[in-house]
Amino acid sequence: MRVIICGAGQVGFGIAERLSYEGHDVSVIDVSARLITNIRDQLDVRAVVGHGSHPDVLAAAGAEDADLLIAVTQADEVNMVASQVAHTIFQIPTKIARVRAQSYLSPVYSSLFARDQLPIDVVISPEIEVGEMVMRRLALPGAVETVRFADGKITVVGILCADDCPVVDTPLRQLTELFPNLGSVVVGVFRQGHLIVPRSEDMLRVGDLVYVVAPRDQVRRTLVIFGHEEPKASRVVIAGGGNIGFYVAQQLELREPQTKVKIIEASRQRALEIADTLHRAVILNGSALDQNILREADIEDADTMVALTNDDQANIIACVMAKTLGCVRNLSLINNVSYPAFANALGIDAYVNPRAVTISRVLRHVRRGRIESVHSLQNGQAEVIEAEALETSLLVGRPLRDLDLPVGVRVGAIIRRGAAVELRGDTQILSGDRVIMFALSEKVHQVEQMFRVSLEFF
User: Fold this and answer.
1) What are phi and psi of 217, to 5 degrees?
2) What's residue 458's pLDDT?
3) Rounded distance, CA 239 to CA 257, Å?
C-alpha cells in the first residue's frame, strides 16, 4: 500500500514507523525540516519538507499513486484541506484526518465531512477517544488498560500482577479448573519489556502485566481473581481543564451523577469558561503541582487523581504528589513513548497514551481483510484484532485444537449472533463470526491473511 502521512510529530512518526516496518511504501510531509531530517535518519520512508495541504508538495510525495492519506498535523484546517486536495486533484481513495476542535464535530454540522463537502472518510478525534478511555479506567480502576471490542461485548484488560495476586505461580491451564465458567482468556504477558504469548503450562509472575480477553459480564470477576477489587471512583480530582479534562468531567456529570469532581486548571480564563458550562464540578484555578491547591481540592479524601495536562512530566509529578498526600489511585496522560515502561516504578497506577489511541484507529483502516477493529499494545509490540470470519477462511469449520495458528497468535474470543461463544478445544469458528485475536507484531500479516476474501492469499 502507498501511504502519505501529513505530519511528522509523535503520532505521524509512530504511524510511519509501524507502516514502514510492515513493508508499506510510506511518504511523510512536514513543514519542519528538523522533524523531516529526524524521520529520514531513522526510517526507510520518503520525506518531504512542505505544507501537506499544498498540491505540489503532495505531488512530490507521490500523491498520484497513493492509496491512503493520513493527515495528523497539529492544525485541523491543514488536515481538512489536505484531504480535500487529495480527493479533488489526486483521487486518493481513502483519507483519514485528525480533527480536534469540537465545533467541527458537533452533530449540528454532521454533513460537513460528507463526500460532496469535505471528503474525509475517517475523522479521528483523539480528545474524545482518550476521554472515553479515561472513563473506562475510572469504571474499572483495577485495570491498567481497557479496550472494548465487538460493540462492547468483549473487553481486553491489562492487569498488573501485584505481590498479593492470587494466581501468581499457578499454571494457566489450572485457571479453568479453579474458576469454571469464567470465559476469560489470557492472551499476552508483558514481562521485562517484552510481550509474549504464554503457553498453558506457563505461570504468571509478580510484576507481569497480563492481557486478558473477557466477556463484558466477566470483567469484574476477572479483576477480582487477579486480586483487584478496587471500587469505582466516587471522588475524582482532574488536573487540567483542556479538551480531555473537560470532556471527562462533563461525562462524569452525565453518567455518574453521584461522583464528586474537582478540576484544577492553571489558566484563569479557561477555568472560568468550564465553570460556566459544568453544573456540579468544582473548579480551582492554580497549579496541580502546588500542594496547597491539592489540599484545597481535598486530595487526601479523593480516590483518584486524573492528570490530563499537555505536559507529561507535570502529569506524572502531580500523580505522585497526590498519592503522597493521601489520594488512593492515580491515572496519567502520557504522550512520551519512553515513559510508560517506567510508569509503575514512578508510582503511576494507570496511564493513557493518546498516540497509541490514534495509531490504533489508523491501523484499522490499513489492515486488509474484514478487519473491524484494531488496538496496538506496548508501542506496537502486539495488536488485538477483531475481524469477521469469511466462508473462505481456513479458520472456519475446524475445531480450535486443530487450528495451525502461528506461534505468537491466540484466539481470545468468538462472537456469534451477538453473544460470546465458550472457547473449548472442540469449538469451531463459523462463517460470519467475529473473532478477537491477539498477535505479536511480526505475526499481524499472517492474521490479515486469515481474514482475506479468497483462498488465493493462503
Assistant:
1) -80, 0
2) 41
3) 20
**Helices and strands of the chain, counted as H and E runs:** 13, 22
Q: What are 238's strand-pairing partners?
A: 263, 306
CB-based contact 70:5 (threshold 8 Å): yes
Q: What spatial distance separates the first Cα and last Cα of the chain, rounded to whole Å? A: 19
Contact, 429 vs 414, CB < 8 A?
yes
Average pLDDT, the chain: 90
Question: Is residue 312 a contact partner of residue 342, using CB atoms and an 8 Å limit?
Answer: no
Distance of alpha carbon 247 from alpha carbon 304, whole angstroms: 17
Q: Of 199, 212, 304, which Cα lies nearest the Cα of 252? A: 304
Question: How many angstroms separate the CA atoms of 289 and 302, rounded?
Answer: 16
What secondary structure does DSSP assign to 396-442, as a single string? BTSBGGG--PPTTEEEEEEEETTEEPP--TT-BB-TT-EEEEEEEGG
Q: Which three cell numbers stand for residue 372?
A: 473491524
Burial (CB < 10 A; 0-12, 13-18, 19+), residue 169, is: exposed
DSSP-based three-state secondary structure for 144? coil
Read off the pLDDT of residues 390-437 as tens digits, 9 standing for 90 and up.
888 888 888 999 888 889 999 999 999 989 998 888 999 999 999 999
State pLDDT tens for residues 293-305: 999 999 999 999 9
Helix (H, G, I), strand (E, B) or coil at 330: strand
Query: In whole angstroms, how far apart are CA 105 and each of 128, 252, 276?
Result: 10, 20, 21
CA 63 to CA 82: how far, in whole Å? 11
Question: Once rounded to an integer, what is the mean pLDDT over residues 239-249?
Answer: 94
Q: How far is CA 166 from the centre of its chain?
A: 28
Residues 219, 224, 228, 229, CA torsion sign: positive
Q: What angle do helix axes 126-139 and 354-366 make, rounded to 10 degrees? A: 110
Question: Under 8 Å CB-to-CB from 299, ≥6 apart: which residues?
Answer: 237, 305, 322, 325, 326, 327
Query: Could you read off the pLDDT of 24-54 as tens digits, one per residue?
Result: 999 999 999 999 999 999 999 999 999 999 9
Per DSSP, the three-state class of 170 is: coil
The answer to whether 430 touches 387, Cβ cutoff 8 Å, is: no
Using alpha carbons, select from 12, 95, 82 the residue that is nearest to residue 54: 82
